[in-house]
Amino acid sequence: MESLHELFPYFEKDLIEEIKVAGIEKSFQKGEIILTQENYIKNIPLITKGHIKISRQDGVGNEIVMYYIKKGETCASTIQCCENRKKSNISAEAEDEVELILIPLEYLEKWMMKYDSWKDFLLINYREKFGQMIQTLDKVAFGNLQKRLEDYLQEKSSVNKNKEITVTHQQIAYDLNSTREVISRYLKKMELRKKIKLSRGKIKLAG
DNA sequence: ACATTAAGTGATT
DNA sequence: AATCACTTAATGT
């Protein structure tokens, strides 16, 4: 295992020492389930090696990945879970060989007051994972842009009874809650597949 | 010709 | 898929 100093360079010396005393080292094999949604969480993990997949699952084999955590990070969701003393609402699975240090709950708040670096660590982690979740949320909510774009063009053309649509990529992006670059790239692909013909401010549907 | 706006691209997260 | 940082191509004046 890499030293704690290397993994968490901004932790104070004292904090590192406390972690060494209070932390419980655990390791998991690749594919091993670290946590299911039935578990109660009593510890905060500091990952010191490997990657963990955090996901939500339903009973029938569907799962959606919320985010991944890797060494030098902690799991943002566990913080929320253990505060409530509720069952975990997430599953965690080892993506490869994982080593981590469990920090018992009672130290969490204590260290928040005591060490700025700990507080910052948690905050930064939380922010980052939240951002990743927004992204996966977008993928699910707005998913298959490809299809939505095709429908959009089809709709637009049939409304105006015209194969020639006058709209900018920027406008489409706006309408579909996306960005110009992404729309442009999809349109380009469609053009290569001879589905449409592109020109400035205009799109002509094939057929 | 020159400025403005639309579109294309590669790299990065 | 989004954002950034440019580049390139069309168009308007």
Number of helices: 8
Q: Measured on Cα atoms, how large is the radius of gyration?
A: 24 Å
C-alpha termini separation: 62 Å
The rough form would be described as elongated
Low-confidence stretches: none
Order of helices and strands: HHEEEEEHEEHHHEHHEE
Average predicted local confidence, pLDDT: 87
Number of strands: 10
**Structural class based on helices, strands and sheet pairing:** alpha+beta
Largest sheet: 4 strands, antiparallel
Give the helix proportion (percent range). 40-55%
Defining traits:
single chain; 207 residues; alpha+beta; four-stranded antiparallel β-sheet; three-stranded antiparallel β-sheet; 8 helices; 10 strands; 45% helix; elongated; DNA-binding
Describe the structure.
The chain has about 210 residues and is of the alpha+beta class. The chain contains eight helices and ten strands. The chain has helices spanning about 5, 15-20, 75-85, 105-115, 115-140, 145-160, 170-175, 180-190; strands at about 25-30, 35, 45-50, 50-55, 65-70, 90-95, 100-105, 165, 195-200, 200-205. The strands form three sheets. A four-stranded antiparallel sheet has the order 2-6-4-5. Strands 1-7-3 form a three-stranded antiparallel sheet. It has a three-stranded antiparallel sheet with strand order 8-10-9. Strand 4 and strand 5 form a beta hairpin. Helix 7 (about 170-175) packs across helix 8. It is elongated, with a radius of gyration of 24 Å. The protein binds a DNA duplex (13 and 13 nucleotides) through helix 5 and helix 8.
